[in-house]
Structures are given as structure tokens and as C-alpha cells.
């Protein structure tokens, strides 16, 4: 396609089955364990894979995804603008990208504010695991105080 002296070429995307990436991550876990002198995979190996999975997307998307996790899976447009240090149109574009990819859903919410209601970005059900205690534990993140108290009382 030619427009205004610029040429753009488009190719059909190649969509791979999830089995391939699963096998790749498994092999990386095994290799990491072996390099560390172990013959079994442990949480240290899993942390590497979780971080790699998050960081395998474009930088701005990874940054937004991490902020979304830090904010318990929900952010308003103004939060995205602040987190990415970008303009509102750029924030809306990145939010829409996560929606198209099925990572998040977007709702329109008005909280009595004047002007255009803010959009709210929420992590979709398929990605809720990233908010779980298991994921936080693997990533070495602190659990919320309520969860620490509950888990200590169970012991």
C-alpha cells in the first residue's frame, strides 16, 4: 500500500499454538535448574519464567501489565496516563490494545466527575492468576497484610 510517498507492507500474522511456548518455557525451566546444579524445577525457576512471560511483550505493554497487577487488576485512564507518563490518547490506545489481546476488559465509569467519564481497565478472568498469592509468592512479591495474618492463623 502506498500513501503520501510512504510504503507499508502487511503480512498475515502467524499464530502459534500455545503448546510451543509451553514447551519452550518448560525447557528453559529445566535448563535453569540444571545450570543451578539441580535435577528438579523449583520456585526460583518458575520466577524466571513468569518474569519472562511478562517481559516478552513490548516494553510499554509490560510496564502497564505490571502496574495493573500492582493495582489489584484495575486502573482508570488517569492512572494509566500517570503510570506510563504519557498522553491520554496514548493511554487509551494501550488500554485498547490489552482489550483486543483479551488481557483486559474496559468499562466506562463515571464517579460524579465533570467531563468525559474515565474508562476503567480490568484484568480479564483468564489473567486473574497474576493477582493470586501463588503468583505473588513465585515472583517474590509481598502479600497483603490481611493475607499474611490469615495464613499465619491457619498454621
How much β-strand is present in the residues? 5-15%
Number of strands: 5
Mind summarizing the main beta sheet? Answer: 3 strands, antiparallel
Mean pLDDT, nearest integer? 84
In spatial order, strands of the major sheet run 3-5-4
C-alpha-based Rg, rounded: 20 Å
Number of helical regions = 7
Binned, the helix content reads 40-55%
Stretches with pLDDT under 50, minimum 5 residues:
none
Sum up the overall morphology in one term. Answer: globular
Distance N terminus to C terminus?
Answer: 65 Å
Q: What structural class do you assign from the helix and strand content?
A: alpha+beta
- The ordered H/E elements are EEHHHEHHEEHH
Description:
The protein is an alpha+beta fold and 155 residues long. The protein is 52% helix and 12% strand. The strands form two sheets. The protein has a three-stranded antiparallel sheet with strand order 3-5-4. Strands 1-2 form a two-stranded antiparallel ribbon. Strand 4 (104-109) and strand 5 (118-123) form a beta hairpin. Helix 1 (18-35) crosses helix 2 (43-55) and helix 4 (77-84) packs across helix 5 (88-100). The protein is globular and about 60 Å long. It starts with a strand and ends with a helix.
Supply database-style keywords.
155 residues; alpha+beta; 3-stranded antiparallel beta sheet; two-stranded antiparallel sheet; 12% strand
Layout of strands and helices, then pairs:
Elements: E1 2-3, E2 6-7, H1 18-35, H2 43-55, H3 59-70, E3 74-76, H4 77-84, H5 88-100, E4 104-109, E5 118-123, H6 133-139, H7 145-154
Antiparallel strand pairs: 1-2, 3-5, 4-5
Helix pairs in contact: 1-2, 4-5
Amino acid at each position: 500500500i502506498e500513501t503520501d510517498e510512504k510504503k507499508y507492507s502487511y503480512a498475515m500474522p502467524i499464530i502459534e499454538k500455545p503448546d510451543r511456548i509451553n514447551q519452550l518455557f518448560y525447557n528453559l525451566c529445566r535448563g535453569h535448574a540444571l545450570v543451578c546444579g539441580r535435577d528438579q524445577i523449583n520456585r526460583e525457576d518458575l520466577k524466571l519464567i513468569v518474569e519472562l512471560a511478562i517481559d516478552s511483550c513490548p516494553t510499554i505493554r509490560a510496564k502497564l501489565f505490571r502496574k495493573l497487577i500492582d493495582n489489584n487488576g484495575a486502573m482508570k485512564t488517569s492512572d494509566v496516563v500517570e503510570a506510563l507518563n504519557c498522553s491520554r490518547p496514548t493511554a487509551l490506545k494501550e488500554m485498547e490494545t490489552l482489550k483486543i489481546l483479551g488481557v483486559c476488559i474496559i468499562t466506562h465509569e463515571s464517579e460524579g466527575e465533570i467531563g468525559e467519564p474515565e474508562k476503567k481497565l480490568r484484568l480479564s478472568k483468564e489473567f486473574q492468576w497474576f493477582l493470586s498469592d501463588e503468583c505473588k509468592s513465585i515472583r517474590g512479591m509481598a502479600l497483603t497484610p490481611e493475607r499474611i495474618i490469615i495464613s499465619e492463623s491457619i498454621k
